# Entry
Amino acid sequence: MSVRTRFAPSPTGFLHVGGARTALFCYLQARAKGGQFILRIEDTDLERSTEESVQAILNGMHWLGLDYDEGPIFQTHRFARYAEVTRTLLAENKAYHCYCPKDRLEILREQQMQQGLKPRYDGLCRDRKDIPQDISRSIKPVVRFRNPDEGDVSWDDAVRGLISISNTELDDLVIARPDGSPTYNFTVVVDDIDMAVSLVIRGDDHINNTPRQINIYRALGAELPRFAHVPMILGADGARLSKRHGAVGVMQYRDDGYLPQALLNYLVRLGWSHGDQEVFSMAEMIEYFDIVDVNRKAAAFDYNKLDWLNQHYMRELPASEVAAHLRWHMDHVGLNVQSGPALADLVTVQSERVKTLKEMAAVSTVYYQDYDDFEPTAAKKHLRLVAAEPLQAIRASLAAVVDWQPEALDQAVHQTAEGLGVNMGKVAQPLRVALTGTSVSPAIDKTLWLVGKDRSLERIDRALQFIEQRGAAE
RNA sequence: GCUCCCUUCGUCUAGCGGUAAGGACGCGGCCCUCUCAAGGCUGAAACACGAGUUCGAUUCUCGUAGGGAGCGCCA
# Structure
């Protein structure tokens, strides 16, 4: 039988990394089994749902490349259907109208808590036949689902194993508000039945909702899907992930310079593994992933490992592909990519030196525009009188280079050093400071290559001038 | 408070009754080296605790402790 999974976020914010991982698991499970993956937007809470959030979720899914076969399906478009099912339950006496005012329920809840009891609806309206006319006219009732009061509800969770809870722990939940709008636990069940979802993958914060939902499935005479409750993702400090942990929204990771492949690879390894393998292509994830192998423990987010994976992908993915992602960051920091080396060339040189694309853009400005001043300590150390001769020599040598490629440039620097009878550092370091204004940059041949011939010669001249002025001043 | 869930290096994890408890990130050291990286080699680092079951428990059972989730006319 084909597997049908769904990811069902509520549009009350951006696409959270925890949600992204759940979506990834749903996606992988469907793709692996040749099934379908559905995206459903749970927007029944009209107060908190926003159009921007819907867009943010769609953007996040798109950036990650998690494409769905059906959807997005909006619950707000299905109110008529929920109302229909509610009427059926009412007619079958599996649900009933409840006229209890909110304040009565609040008081009840407080009393129960005080007595050390679990707060539950006491069932006052369950079999109430004495609704006075004036009450039924002034109070619009909610609809409650008649939960079984005996027996247990249990299911074999695909990741947790057998979970069981007594019906006496449950109460009659509201399935429709006074205005007729449906509530979460009810819409999920109706939708999952209507959409023939066969495997419900969701965060383990929903474990407690599952028994209630199972009872609704039964009342509706529907077959149960398989449930898989995946552990949550914690912040780096082990506490629940929240804004103060930095990036929680998926798009924030793009802004921070991560590749979608890296984030996906990082997320799939949270709670799941395949032997000692750390790096997985999407094809491998689809091939190896199985929801039953997901473990039960909540996992703390580790930026170091994400960084490592990100660098891995920056180096291993085709440079042109990485360059396309880098482009966004270059634009973002206001660099004109026409005024320097091709981005793909930049990527081949810089990817092993930085952890993120954001960092790459930041350390690459000198290849696209002139730097303002020499970094004081670098200049003090390397642009001294003794550096004048090597710089002049290398300038002459470079001026003669026709094929401005790393091999020829490397040769030029080496030959210059040999000719002067000094080691590489005596030539390379002053040259590096001349080229970049700092003492840190890629290998000198690569640095020259990226800076380009004309700009390199200009900058050497500038450094020579600096040395001369400084010499005169001393 | 009540119910449900979780517990192997700092972190992500392997383990599925007998292992020197493996890998990865990070951290330390060495090597390489024109700087910074990257790379290679290497080191330190874990079975929460207590009872059982068993010839033998990280692995099975039960407690304890710690952590998480839920208990809405939010999802």
In short: Residues 453-473 of chain A form the longest helix (21 residues). Residues 343 and 367 of chain A are 11 Å apart (CA to CA). DSSP finds 20 helices and twelve strands in chain A.
